[in-house]
Amino acid sequence: MATTTTSSSLLALPSFRSNCNQRPSFRVRAQISGDKATSVEPVNGSVPVSKLPNPNGSEVNGKVKFQREDEIELLWDDGYGSKSVKDYFAAAREILKKPDGGPPRWFSPVDCGQPIKDAPTLFFLPGMDGTGMGLVPHQIALGKAFHVWCLHIPVHDRTPFQGLLKIVEDVLRQEHATRPNKPIYLVGDSFGGCMALAVAARNPSIDLVLILVNPATSFERSPLQPLLPILEMVPEELHFTIPYALSFIMGDPIKMASIGIDNQLPAGIKLNKLREKLTNSMLPLLSELGGIIPRETLLWKLKLLRSGAAYTNSRIHAVEAEVLLLVSGKDRMLPSQEESKRLHGLLKNCTVRCFKENGHTLLLEDSLSLLTVIKGTCKYRRSRRYDFASDFLPPSKGELDFALQELLRFLRNAVSSVFLSTMEDGRIVKGLAGVPDEGPVLLVGYHMLMGLELGPMSEAFIKEKNILFRGMAHPILYAETDSTKEFGYMDWIKVFGAYPVTATNLFKLLSSKSHVLLYPGGAREALHNRGEQYKLIWPDQQEFVRMAARFGATIVPFGTVGEDDIAELVLDYNDLMKIPFLSNYISEVTRDTKEFKLRDESSGEVANQQLYLPGVLPKIPGRFYYLFGKPIHTKGRPELVKDKEAAKLVYLEAKEEVEKCIAYLLKKREEDPYRSVVDRLSYSLTHLPENDVPSFEP
Fold first, then answer.
1. Roughly how many angstroms between the first and final C-alpha of the chain, as a whole number?
2. Of 143, 223, 266, 679, which alpha carbon lies 20 to 30 A from 621's?
């Protein structure tokens, strides 16, 4: 690894050094490849362009540093968990080896690498520490999706708040002038959140996306306010105790030490690893905070924080930017949860996600990758408007592992899904071999109660075929009205490709040759009434056939059974609407969906999209079964686009095939000796873990 000015390496940004009025005292090193590095000495406060690595991966001194990627591959390595707070302290130590009085400057961590084509730019504005290293655990992932630049405010720098705003504004305006149609991201951590909001208020014409992490706009209501006057009276020789004590207030050492520890390890091993990290790494490192924030710097930063919060709050009404607000439930430094409610009401376009088990230093604690949160809240875009097709980034391996182990673990183990598919010659085989590998492919089928079939089905396509299908979702999942919402299941289905079911989105996805999942029965089928299990509740119109034919997509009908083996529906929509307070609640919840035109050409019960949570009684789990029918080809059949009668025949063919698949599975599951979870557990105890539990022969 190259020797660099920080543990991550630094890349100079020549044009961004226009704010510097003096020659920096540190050297900038750009890693070229392998164990070799090229040192670049700043000249008059900037680095010559010719000395920097070529961003397109061209040769530099005979070596290629980066190779730009057009798109991110499925199950890519996002690096989350490979870096922790230990790496943050190591990076801070390196950058503070040669302390100077400023001015503030920008750097790009080499860990970020080269982003995908047309990636937007992300600027990180640090908190009280000012090092700019707060993204260390997230650098690898963010570097795939953004051009990442971090602001470093030297320890002895005394630039006032408005001076810092000008430094950030100069960079934003230059970036906006260079790429006027691209959004610019500002990630503001604590004090940096104040800077981000203030800059947005002063630059309403620039397309900004603000990601605020426990912003310090609530500093005047901080529970530490009574203690602040005491800090000024602490003698210099005892100052080292102050940052050490504050570290336990600012963040959760246990959550910091938990980054990189596999949650699936046995409890004893996990606790041992956590203890080792706490005693050998975490707690000794906290004593270094005194060097990062010396006494005079701490007092200056507190004054800066107070003036910055007041300045920002006086102008917050002018913010037009899109805002993602991330707050911690155990923030002991600021009343972040209360502040999230205030900001959500003041800001015009604000989405909130709460992390109830985290402290103030959210970005350095064990929670989720920042890029995962950005994707799950649909905030990643490369143009003026978010596009569900072109702006989608596929899930990483870490995201898949988290989803399978933390979200779907019980369901996966309980239902032990069986997958079958139909070949072109009509043979039914185990697995998904009958589903075409090449898109566009339109999967249409039966929607089980509450969509329970989705998780195991998505896992099977990813693991067996390396394909992520894009599934439709009700638009209510995209409504953002809650200021206390946690990052949960509804966000994770967006990470894994869910899109609002509209004709425009279906058009875009099929045109990009994707595998697309569509349920003609929609929410009405997934939330069916008692006695309607395995009944197709499809509209009369051939909604999807003509769209599929327009792109020559292959239609694959499929059936699923198993909902009656895992739960019994005891209270359906009709039952719940007879209970006064529940009927009012259901009407209130679905009120926000009226702005969406769902099935505006449909009539009857399928057009009824009221959403509710049915009353169910769990059973001793049975098993889920999936059968993908014989593919229906629309390529070379242009008459389907305009001839409604011809399209209707294909529509009825697909519907009949789904019904046949369901009937086949209901009959064949009776032959499965391991349909009951009890029998499957018995089998697992006598066989190796890698052996899948068998089922009936197709």
1. 55
2. 266
